[in-house]
Amino acid sequence: MAKEGLGLEITELRLGLPGGGAEKNEKKRVFSNIAGDGNISTAGDHKKERKSQVVGWPPVCSYRKKNSVNGLESTKMYVKVSMDGAPFLRKIDLNTHKGYSDLAVALEKLFDCFGIGEALKDADSSEYVPIYEDKDGDWMLAGDVPWEMFSESCKRLRIMKRSDAKGIGLHAKSSIKGTLKDG
Amino acid sequence: MNYFPEEVLEHVFDFLTSDRDRNAVSLVCQSWYRVFIGNCYAISAERLIARFPRVRSLTLKGKPHFADFNLVPHDWGGFVYPWIETMAKSGLNLEELRLKRMVVSDDSLELLSRSFVNFKSLVLVSCEGFTTDGLAAIASNCRFLRELDLQENEVEDRRGQWLSCFPDSCTSLVSLNFACLKGEVNLVALERLVTRCCNLRSLRLNHAVPLDTLQKILVQAPHLVDLGIGSYVHDPDSETYHKLKSAIQKCTSVRSLSGFLEVAPRCLAAIYQICLNLTSLNLSYAAGIHGTELIKLIRHCGRLQRLWILDCIGDKGLGVVASTCKELQELRVFPSDLYGVGHAAVTEEGLVAISAGCPKLNSLLYFCHQMTNAALITVAKNCPNFTRFRLCTLNPTKPDPVTMQPLDDGFGAIVQSCKGLRRLSLTGLLTDQVFLYIGMYAEQLEMLSVAFAGDSDEGMLYVLNGCKKLKKLEIRDSPFGNVALLTDVGKYETMRSLWMSSCEVTLEGCKTVAKLMPRLNVEIINESEQVEVEASPDDRQKVEKMYLYRTLVGPRRDAPDFVWTL
């Protein structure tokens, strides 16, 4: 092996690489290890499969991925949103939002008032409290659970005035249900 | 020594084939008005304008191709604002701007609309960062606008009044494409716009335009050449449908059809008449058209040259394409089932049928469940004219299911037969052998995309050594390391860019390239949340994502924290 300058460096680097044939086969299996082997059974387990996909595979551009109507995927998730003091309710499609901050921006626009964003970010300081009715009919404080869980269980939203929640004690980030017991 | 990299000059002189001629001419002639810049970071706006002060039409591309597949973080770069700002300040007479994979803010659109009196054409492809407010600025201020073409952009929709911003005095529109917009548009404004723009030849609507509006529009614009239908949902017995049918019959100039974002397939008979003359058909977003309805439609399209379709067409459907569309040159078959729930789609059979029936085929993008060497060899024999060949098996390391062999020989046949091949994407089980073939035979190859392929550095070296015209090489999840990276670093200055992610190159290897080649930007994208990496990055650590490209202007100043330019 040549010893001048670059040649020597290459030699050194080669020594540093994990060696040999064993690596090659491992690399080839990497995809199936990442994505999960073999046949995917239940069609109903749609969401679970999505999580086991390799990033960027298949190589379909993200616009197309988002706009591929899969029949099952095309459902819109409209929920009513009420805000205390506002004369009428609005509706939003939860599916079009990627997360809580996205939702906050949308709600801000709908009700043209700037407390909402803060409410969703920091429950303690804002004038408003965002709550939602879940599948069980319980009223929950928005923001506790991951976005996907929230959007799947949310049936309607209410932007409640903190003053209406007097006596409930929202200083802790626990759900309203828990504190109601005490109060 | 003052020279311009190829990407600037590529498209300026079509008739000069020798690069040295083109470079030489550019030194004396400053009157170029159409400039193409394949990498916005290869050159600065200032230098461009200094060199070509009479630029009227500019094409700019930003993010690397793999950004399409979410491999590049959101705020990596590619901002158009500085370009527009500089061009505005220099008093340039900009008329056309085409952007791909760039970040376009509303401010940029606003500035664009106010700075160039003669601005005529805006084409945005796979861009992001703007809202309909930006479009409103374009509509309001560009008095001579001829073309507003939005292709597959992520646009935040703000309640659709942007269309109403086209003043009554605007009659110059020739092309309007807003199919990618999510929200409502003002339908009355749309109808009036179409009515007063008698030169309108291309119109692509979004899903929010209902059928009765479409019908009214077609009555006003029977000379359309390119039509994108948004929503096509109606009752076949309704009066609207009958009116639509007669309106369509008068649209004898339509040659290109797309959309059908929402569709009631039983009503497709109304468009059969248009199908007879179509040269281009894009049903890749028309998930609602499948089965027998789709086949029936295709059977009317005897003159098709370009077809984009979903894989639910199936192998049998491709057989119908093969027997009907004898003039076919470009075929793209996209996956309809992205999450692999298991619906069989297309296989090698469909492709073989197409190759047998459509000898003029020169451009292919094909997502399939499996591929065989025998099929590829047959395809290579039937269609020696491929200039673009992109194959994607949904399982990227799947071997030939018949022989259980890698697909080396199949792709080898393609590169050997298709002497004009300029672009190639490979998948399937692939060893270093396929790269040996590519290096040996793919003499015209300019762009190569590799994923989960190869065994060793030799593979990548075959390509770097053999493909003299290589411009863009992008590799992911393949076992190529520092030896391949460093053997011929001079090669990278002859290329536009190299992308390597999840490979074996280390930080030290990348640093070496950067040190040896000052005219390259070597960027490491490090998204890991470990802050400690900053403190003392281990040179032996593998680099997750590396993007290097030649440039005249050194490291860019707008790189975010997670991008290190070595």
TrEMBL record, chain A:
SUPFAM superfamilies named in the record: CAD & PB1 domains (SSF54277)
Keywords, sorted A to Z: Auxin signaling pathway, Nucleus, Repressor, Transcription, Transcription regulation
Gene Ontology, cellular component aspect: nucleus
Domain named PB1: residues: 76-164
Cellular compartment(s): Nucleus
Coiled-coil zones: none
Entry annotated with the keyword Cell cycle: no
A GO BP annotation: auxin-activated signaling pathway
Principal location class: nucleus
Function: Aux/IAA proteins are short-lived transcriptional factors that function as repressors of early auxin response genes at low auxin concentrations.
SUBUNIT field: Homodimers and heterodimers.
PANTHER family: AUXIN-RESPONSIVE PROTEIN IAA17 (PTHR31734), AUXIN-RESPONSIVE PROTEIN IAA5 (PTHR31734:SF87)
Family: Belongs to the Aux/IAA family.
Name used for this protein in its record: Auxin-responsive protein
Source organism: Davidia involucrata
TrEMBL record, chain B:
GO biological process: auxin-activated signaling pathway; pollen maturation; SCF-dependent proteasomal ubiquitin-dependent protein catabolic process
Source taxon at top rank: Eukaryota
Any one GO CC term of the record: SCF ubiquitin ligase complex
Subcellular locations according to the entry: Nucleus
SUPFAM superfamilies: F-box domain (SSF81383), RNI-like (SSF52047)
F-box domain residues: 4-45
Alphabetically ordered keywords of this record: Auxin signaling pathway, Developmental protein, Nucleus, Ubl conjugation pathway
Alphabetized Pfam families for the sequence: F-box_5 (PF18511), LRR_6 (PF13516), Transp_inhibit (PF18791)
Main location: nucleus
Recorded metabolic or biological pathway in which this protein acts: Protein modification; protein ubiquitination
One term of GO molecular function: auxin binding
CDD domains from the UniProt entry: F-box_AtTIR1-like
PANTHER family to which the protein is assigned, alphabetical: F-BOX/TPR REPEAT PROTEIN POF3, PROTEIN AUXIN SIGNALING F-BOX 3
Designated name of the protein: F-box domain-containing protein
Native organism taxonomy: Eukaryota, Viridiplantae, Streptophyta, Embryophyta, Tracheophyta
